[in-house]
Amino acid sequence: MIIQTVACIGGGVIGAGWVARLLENGINVNVFDSASDTQQKMQAVLSNADRAYAKLTMAQRPSKGAIAFSDSMQAAVENAQWIIESVPERIDIKHGVYAEIEKYAANDAVIASSTSGIMPTDLQRNMLHPERLFVAHPFNPVYLLPVVEIVGGEKTASVIIDRAKTFYASLGMKPIHVKKEIEAFVADRLLEAIWRESLWLIKDGITTTQELDDIVRFGFGLRYAQMGVFETYRIAGGEAGMRHFLAQFGPCLKWPWTKLMDVPEYNEELVELIAGQSDQQSGHISIRELERIRDDNLIAIQQALKANDWGAGQVLAEYEKKLFDDGARSVSTGNEVDYSEPILTTERRIPPDWTDYNNHMNEARYLQCFGDATDAFMRMAGCDAAYIESGSSFFTVETHIRHLDEVRVNEPIHTKTQLLAGVGKKIHLFHFMYHADGRLLATGEHMLVHVSLDTRAASFPSQAMQAILSAIAEHHARLPIPDGAGRAVGQSRQH
Ligand SMILES: NC(=O)c1ccc[n+]([C@@H]2O[C@H](COP(=O)([O-])OP(=O)(O)OC[C@H]3O[C@@H](n4cnc5c(N)ncnc54)[C@H](O)[C@@H]3O)[C@@H](O)[C@H]2O)c1
User: Fold this and answer.
1) Beta strands 110-113 and 82-85: pairing type?
2) Distance from the CA of 375 to the center of ligand 1, in angstroms?
3) What is the pLDDT of residues 178-196, one digit of tens each?
4) pLDDT class of 257 with cuts at 50, 70, 90
């Protein structure tokens, strides 16, 4: 079942993060929040998410979903197939919200709570249709962090858990099913342990907030980002692995290394101490700016892990593979593709780190844009992940780019592609890069050869692909030869 409309009830920190992730994945969202300033606050999160997604993936993303701010619970949920509740962490508020939802929503609309720690069995206690409620516990920023803990209550139907895993994976997330419900689930239980220890370490004057953060981010925090707890310690045990590690550090369990059973008293003095140090550490940077720095770091780590085909980077790679294929399908399916014109192959905004010292897009990114356009064209012709897996692909053998006009950060561009020749083992592509205001910014010309990945030699495309390419080539042969086609560097315009 394809989810088209989701209702987000509660649009604070977490609700806004869900809204952003859903919109970026092309899903329409109805928002209902009892506060009057939600719309304005949410815009800031949506604009940060827009900026982040432009950097997170080069794949063509679905067109953004539509957002509607509802003035009643009824308007928000009556046409929603999926309802995400992110209201404050108080069971009485959540129970009240579910009673309202059940008045107006379809009986089979799924309800996902973002609760950080209330057990789903307690949440579903007064519900008419408790089988559709479960917990989907995300992490801030919801639009960037892949993990989501899925927890069912005693009455949750197992089919709902299966649907939840599929749905969140389709949003580029990594759903983890926590099979036994406990308060605070898994992640917050771990985080609470480190938080309590941290409060003691500051209160006892062992470190400052700055020193403690440095110890995390320059050390084990980097390890956690890619191997977690157990794989990391397995390596720490050397050749003998985990057994040796446990033997070596097992006795420490009895030593008074932590204060986990004891909690510092929460009082004004503790608040002043922690908040004062934190202001000194980061007070010179606004929260919005910190959010953007955090987002850039999270993107960089995920992209680095993608290059290593590891952990969160694998989730991103899978998500992009799907986006690339879906983007190609949306261009190639149905009758809407008009072969009588160059074909729209990519659309994007220029990300902040694509520019040079003049604030213009740098040369390497022009090549990247045209490479992406070639990829999109190839996928449209059927050269998708499955085709490559089956042992064939196209290799680019020659490229010529003309830089005609300037383009700056955040500006919207798109590419259109004309097939100059598409019969046999070679294809000859000509890309036009346009600004949304109509200016032609650049052209890119590519020669590609179809190859067998087994022999690495030129080979014929599949019959189905040859049929698509011939159809496009036949139509595009009627178009004028583009200005600049066949030029080499330095030729005068008359050539
Ligand atoms: N903040 C986090 O890091 C985090 C992480 C994961 C999960 N959560 C969970 O997500 C949920 C929301 O947390 P948050 O941090 O977004 O809180 P928040 O205070 O930022 O947002 C809550 C929103 O709910 C709205 N609201 C209150 N009562 C409502 C009602 N009856 N109907 C509609 N809207 C109502 C409020 O106006 C507010 O905008 C909580 O259950 C929390 O435990 C929080």
Assistant:
1) parallel
2) 41
3) 999 999 999 999 999 999 9
4) confident
Cβ atoms of 392 and 458 closer than 8 Å: no
CA of 114 to the centre of ligand 1 (A): 8
User: How close is the Cα of 456 to the center of ligand 1, in Å?
Assistant: 55
Is residue 91 within 8 A of residue 99, CB to CB? The reply is: no
What is the pTM (predicted TM-score) of this model? 0.80
Exposed, middle or buried, 334 (CB in 10 Å: 0-12/13-18/19+)? exposed
What's the pLDDT band for 493 if we cut at 50, 70, 90? low
Length of the chain: 495
The stretch 250-278 carries a mean pLDDT of: 84
CA of 87 to the centre of ligand 1 (A): 4
Pocket test for ligand 1, best of 14, 73, 144 (most atoms within 8 A of CB): 14
119-to-14, 84, 180, 182, 260 alpha-carbon distances in Å: 18, 16, 10, 6, 23
Substitution site in 116, 137, 147, 178 for ligand 1 pocket (most atoms within 8 Å of beta carbon):
116
Q: Which residues line ligand 1 (CB under 6 A)?
A: 9-15, 32-35, 38, 86-89, 93, 97, 114-116, 137-138, 140
- The whole-number average pLDDT for the span 456-483 is 94
Residue with the bigger pLDDT between 327 and 255: it is 255
* Ligand 1 atom with minimal separation from the 140 CA: 3
* Three-state DSSP state, 252: helix
Buried b (16+ CB within 10 A) or exposed e, 2-15: ebebbbbbbbbebb
Q: What is the pLDDT of residue 385?
A: 83
Q: In this structure, what DSSP letter does residue 358 have?
A: T
